[in-house]
Every structure is written in C-alpha cells, then in structure tokens.
C-alpha cells in the first residue's frame, strides 16, 4: 500500500518537475525566456489547491522514501538497487532544503523566487562551491531514481540487458540536463546582471557577476 502511494505521489510531483526542468532549459534562450515560461506555469500551480497538494506530496514522498531506505538497510544488492536508495536519500535532503529555501525566500525575504534567485547561489562569492554540485546532483538523482524505479517496474516485460541499457541511458540524459542547467544559471552562456536584492550583499547591483 505504501509503495503504491509512493508511486502515485511520485507521478504528481513528476508532473510539476517536467515543467520545472523544461522551464530551466528555457533559460538557454535567455533570462527573459525563463521568466516568461515561469510566469505561465505559476498560474497553474500557485493556487490554494495545487501548491498545498504538491507540498504535501513532497513531504509524503520524503517520509515514505526514508521509511523504505531504513526498512531495507543492508539488504540491497547490485548497482541499480543501491543507486535507487542513494538517489532517493539525496532527493529527500534536496527537496526539504530546496522547498525550505524557496518558501523562505518568498515569504520572509519578500523575493520573487525566479531565475535570479537560483542564479545568485550559482554566481555570487563562494556560494557556487556548494550550489553547483547541489543542483547538478539533484537533477541527476531525479533521473537516476526514475530510471531505477522504471527498471524494477518493467523487470518482467523486458530482458535484463535492455533494462540496464534503458536505465543507463536515462541516467546519462539526467547528467546532460544537469550540466546544461547549472552551466546556464552559472552565467557560462551569457552574462547575467543580478538585480540588487538577489546579490546576497556580495556584488554590485546590476553588474554582471562574472
Ligand atoms: C538546477 C536545478 C533547479 C533549480 C535551479 C531550481 C530552482 C527553483 C526555483 C527558482 C523555484 C521557485 C519557483 C517559483 O517561484 O515558482 C523552485 C521551486 C521548486 N522546485 Fe526547483 N529547481 C531545480 C531543481 C529541482 C528538482 C530536481 C526538483 C525535484 C526533484 C525541484 C523541485 C521543486 C519544487 C517541488 C518546487 C516548488 C516549490 C513551491 O511550491 O513553490 N527543483 N525551484
């Protein structure tokens, strides 16, 4: 029963994440393109019904995922079985930290948690040393977790070699997306002019930070 609810909740969260990652890829077309995309789908998820449902699903996902990790401690065998637990543990840490930061930024700092909010952590002072691996691992962990879950669900329908190849391909796609998104937000593709309120007290307002 708990496994079934974990999968159902994963499906709902994934609906958000597909748009979320597509939104981050839209930044390849510039900061304005990212902000326009985000303004569009915020209309769908930022309301009294959808956002609390999404946040509840995330909390349930973290709690049920940690329960599965503890229950099967020391009884995992093989690369994909272990990768599923490791990626799940990282996602649990990331999601709590990420949502905490976004909600704190929005409600206590009064910030619009848009492109600049994430870019600040990836460009100002020493913060990138933490935020680069933090975001890159999150995208990779999401795809790894998805790959391992699908591999298990399809285990009776496909031969082992095809399962392994599909899972490895999904993880490689995750790595590619992770590097692309982090590079874009880090200012590797075009200079980013951070507005003063996002500067974390460490850069001249409006100046490119690289
Ligand atoms: C490079 C990677 C990422 C960046 C730069 C990023 C950045 C952001 C930003 C700026 C927001 C605020 C959105 C808004 O104000 O409407 C947000 C929200 C959110 N992110 Fe991410 N994110 C990343 C990856 C992820 C991943 C991998 C997940 C899940 C596995 C995730 C889950 C969420 C969720 C659930 C919210 C919604 C919080 C709310 O209710 O407002 N993010 N993210």
Automatic annotation (TrEMBL):
Keyword field: Membrane, Transmembrane, Transmembrane helix
Family matches, as Gene3D superfamilies: Fumarate reductase/succinate dehydrogenase, transmembrane subunit
Protein name: Succinate dehydrogenase
The keyword Transmembrane appears for this protein: yes
Organism from which the protein derives: Microbulbifer taiwanensis
Stretches that traverse the bilayer: 49-71, 83-104, 134-154, 166-190
SUPFAM superfamilies: Fumarate reductase respiratory complex transmembrane subunits
InterPro entries: SQR/QFR_C/D
């Amino acid at each position: 029963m708990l496994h079934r609810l974990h999968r159902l909740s994963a499906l709902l969260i994934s609906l958000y994440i597909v748009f979320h990652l597509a939104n981050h890829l839209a930044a390849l077309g510039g900061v304005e393109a990212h902000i326009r995309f985000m303004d569009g789908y915020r209309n769908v998820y930022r309301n009294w019904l959808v956002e609390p449902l999404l946040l509840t699903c995330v909390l349930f996902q973290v709690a049920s995922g940690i329960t599965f990790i503890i229950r099967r401690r020391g009884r995992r065998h093989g690369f994909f079985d272990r990768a599923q637990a490791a990626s799940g543990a990282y996602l649990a840490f990331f999601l709590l930290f990420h949502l905490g930061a976004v909600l704190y930024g929005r409600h206590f700092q009064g910030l619009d948690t848009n492109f600049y909010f994430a870019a600040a952590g990836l460009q100002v002072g020493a913060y990138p040393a933490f935020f680069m691996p933090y975001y890159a691992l999150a995208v990779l962990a999401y795809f790894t977790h998805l790959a391992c879950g699908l591999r298990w669900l399809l285990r009776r329908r496909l031969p082992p070699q095809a399962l392994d190849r599909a899972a490895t391909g999904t993880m490689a796609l995750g790595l590619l997306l992770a590097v692309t998104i982090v590079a874009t937000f880090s200012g590797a593709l075009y200079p980013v002019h951070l507005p003063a309120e996002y500067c974390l007290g460490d850069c001249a307002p409006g100046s490119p930070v690289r």
